[in-house]
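Predict fold of Glycosyltransferase family 2 protein; 268 aa.
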Amino acid sequence: MSVPSVVGIVLIKNEDLFIDRVISNILDFCDEIIVADNLSKDRTSDKIRAQQQQHKKIHYHSIADPAQSHDLISEYANTATWIFAVDGDELYDPFGLKRLRQRINVGEYDRQWMILGNALNCTELDVEAKYAQGYLAPPCRSMTKLYNFNAIVSWKGPCSERLHGGEVLFKTGYDKSLRLEFYKDISWEEAEFRALHLCFLRRSTLESATEGQKVIRKNISDMLSENLCARIRSRFFKFIGKKQDSPWKLEKYMRGELVGSDISSFFP
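Predicted 3D structure, encoded as tokens:
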């Protein structure tokens, strides 16, 4: 039995505060890391290119539209490949990923289409103290994304970004219901597949440093759901430098109780 590959697809825009750690934490888990940079204006591209010089498995692409990120992975359909989608605000536990990779290698999850892991949606992060506060999934939704591309014949666009939208053609015996939802059955402390989701924190030097305040960027789903009037209003607010929060993130990632956690394993 051949060992499947794991290909990371990292979609980013202005992530220079954490991108080094984002990439470093998935290096050993992935056989290849495809970085799709949506025209970052901070030091994100410089940092990735520096890592690329040290690790040949990293492949950097500058893209003008998030939809192009799906084109970078569509060719892996119908191959023994797991596609691991990572955003610039996601720090994975590298030790947990190591154990997860061992299970993937022996085919433990071959009959699954998608794996959803645990997440802590961080409102506070203290790297020196190795401590974070935030909201857990569940009751929040899981944003982790690991797909078995050997379960499909093709995934054709148009897609708004990688793994969003389009038309998926499954192989016989597979369908979209084959989802392994770790986060519903395994606690945060015991989870192997888990991430710190930095969705409420400053991630770029281009963002103002505001002590104790959340920095909630609109995501692609927010922008695509806006009508013409909302888009005009968003552009005006951006022009005058007024921040707009993401309603999607507030609704999906701030549920339940605020909890604290030791995060030593995320910063080895």
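The chain is about 25% helix and 30% strand.
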